[in-house]
Write a structure and sequence with these properties.
Helix content is 72%, strand content 1%. By secondary structure, it is an all-alpha fold. It is globular and about 80 Å long. InterPro entries: MFS (IPR011701), MFS_dom (IPR020846), MFS_trans_sf (IPR036259).
Length: 566
């Protein structure tokens, strides 16, 4: 029987196999030759009979008979050095890590997610108190923008850096940054100092979130990864809910400085835990394995691509957050930021196509199925955050509800998101399948968006609240499955980079959803003012619109849209 290459296998069975998971032979070879002896018996029999292999199952997929390769190009010659293999125990956990050590490390990861998401969503309810204290209400948007700017732009770099220098140094550095800058927030004496502290908090959060995801993949095999993704989803959702729900309460009862101070003891415990329990051998550790110092290791790092990626993402977020919130969209600062982002992005594509080890590999991003999965999440985040950002405004402006009541109506969708996210993780581990979760989740999000777009001003409030649930169910089902599918269709060499890239595009989807929906609402306000406002003073009302604060313009636009039946 002739040997079977990955290319031949994919081309001959592309129509029969699910596009989300590779077969065992495909995951093993990664562009190299897989002999029949290496294939499962059932697959060899099917190949001999001329029939397609069965739909792949992550419970049966193995990257190598003795483990999975961790060093790039270790399979280039069809052989793998034993020292380049990651081996797992029968329970699916990494060899060399005791059960006690595993519980400490993974417990620290999920608690880190909890505290990081609590901190990042804290601004939603506490920023009015903070800006009022510093008499700087016009700087409110910068409290969240500064954090988002650094955390989003740095996340894609973490994967490639951790491949070079190891997971532990970046994870510990992220905790150090987050602990120190959280204390800085609590002690800040001016709004400028506080905004700078929030920006550096984003650096720590980028390290925490990226390394938590990558380290979990290092610690457990792909067969049981879904279970631990469920635990991460639970703590992730819990932290977000606690920050948004109790941030204002803590500010009122303890003061805004204490909302940051109470995080410091927990972060110190997590830091000590990370220093003493995190294994040093997680990840490829290319610099250590090659015997190179930091300076020599950085020579092979994609520095130009990293700078361009950070610059393009940072200026894109800056322009989208400033436009319509602090400055009008025609303001020179907004236009300049967006132009720089476009130019940097174009140069980035050219640089990454020539780089030896690009920080964002374009072939992975624009190839099936990984590219499809990444952009699925990007567009889904745009839709989901358009809904979440504007739902409270709808209930306040059209249904005339208070801010607290309108916010409470998001409790149901948030609960549905958490339950579905946790359930999806356990389902993937039990069944080994994820394609149907992504398909059902995407259809559910489409159903939710269709229901919301059909609402009218006289719709019962209870029905409008129910219409928010399908989209959250869809996100809860599809996002964990997408995360695992991206890892399952990547080699160990590429998994850290792909995980960071997926997080980046999800974050960009969040920013785009908020900004685009804000732009549409402001343009709708101008249109409906022209159409609906009549009388002698109509010109004064229309010309006064640019002077109205952005949030008030959005409120008025929603109310006009509701009255007009749109």
């Amino acid at each position: 029987m002739p040997s079977i290459t990955r290319k031949d296998n994919r081309s001959s069975h592309a129509s029969e196999q699910t596009p989300l998971l590779q077969s065992a032979s495909e995951q093993r070879s990664h562009g190299t030759v897989a002999t029949p002896d290496e294939l499962p018996e059932s697959e060899v029999a099917q190949q001999g009979e001329g029939g397609p292999p069965q739909s792949p199952d992550i419970r049966k997929s193995k990257s190598h008979p003795n483990g999975r390769p961790i060093a790039p190009n270790s399979e280039a010659t069809g052989t793998v050095d034993p020292k380049d293999l990651v081996k797992f125990k029968k329970n699916g956990k990494l060899e060399g890590v005791s059960d006690w050590q595993f519980r400490c490390v993974f417990g620290g990861i999920v608690l880190g997610y909890l505290i990081t998401m609590f901190d990042s969503t804290l601004m939603a309810s506490s920023h009015p108190v903070i800006t009022s204290y510093f008499h700087a209400s016009n700087s409110a948007s910068w409290l969240s923008t500064a954090f988002l700017l650094t955390s989003t732009s740095l996340q894609p770099l973490m994967g490639r850096l951790s491949d070079t220098f190891g997971r532990k140094p970046l994870y510990v550095a992220g905790l150090v940054f987050l602990t120190a800058t959280t204390a800085w927030c609590a002690l800040a004496q001016s709004i400028g100092s506080f905004i700078a502290a929030r920006a550096f908090c984003g650096v720590g959060a980028a390290g925490m979130l990226s390394m938590g995801n990558v380290m979990t993949n290092d610690l457990v095999s792909i067969e049981i990864r879904g279970t631990y993704q469920a635990y991460i989803n639970l703590f992730y959702g819990g932290g977000s809910a606690c920050g948004a729900a109790f941030g204002g309460f803590l500010c009122d009862k303890l003061g805004w400085r204490m909302t940051f101070a109470v995080q410091i003891p927990i972060l110190l415990v997590l830091l000590i835990n990370a220093i003493f329990t995190t294994p040093t051998f997680l990840g490829p550790n290319l610099a250590k394995r090659s015997g190179l110092g930091i300076r020599d290791a950085m020579k092979g790092f994609d520095i130009a691509g990293s700078i361009l990626l950070m610059g393009s993402v940072a200026f894109l977020i800056l322009g989208l957050n400033l436009g319509g919130n602090i400055y009008p969209w025609k303001h020179p600062i907004v236009i300049t930021s967006l132009i720089i982002a476009c130019i940097s992005g174009a140069i980035l594509i050219r640089v990454e196509s020539l780089a030896t080890r690009p920080v964002m590999p374009l072939p992975m991003l624009f190839s099936q199925p990984r590219g499809n999965l990444v952009f699925n999440n990007f567009f889904a985040q745009i839709g989901m955050n358009t809904i979440l950002f504007n739902a409270p405004l709808y209930f306040q402006a059209v249904k005339l509800e208070s801010a607290s009541v309108s916010g409470f109506r998001l409790a149901g969708p948030s609960l549905a998101l958490t339950i579905c996210g946790v359930s999806a993780g356990f389902i993937m581990t039990a069944t080994g399948r994820m394609k149907w979760l992504i398909v059902v989740g995407s259809l559910s999000m489409l159903l939710g968006a269709t229901c919301l777009s059909s609402m009218w001003d006289a719709i019962p409030t209870w029905l409008a609240t129910i219409f928010l649930v399908p989209s959250s169910i869809g996100q809860g089902l599809s996002f964990p499955a997408t995360s695992l599918a991206v890892l399952a269709t990547s080699t160990q060499e590429d998994q850290a980079v792909m995980a960071s890239t997926l997080i980046l595009w999800r974050s960009l989807g969040i920013v785009m959803g908020v900004s685009l929906s804000s732009l549409i609402l402001q343009n709708a306000l101008t249109l409906y003012l022209e159409r609906l406002v009549t009388g002698r003073s109509k010109d004064k009302v229309r010309f006064a619109q640019p002077c109205v604060p952005p949030l008030c313009r959005r409120d008025l636009s929603l109310r006009l849209c509701g009255w007009s039946g749109v």
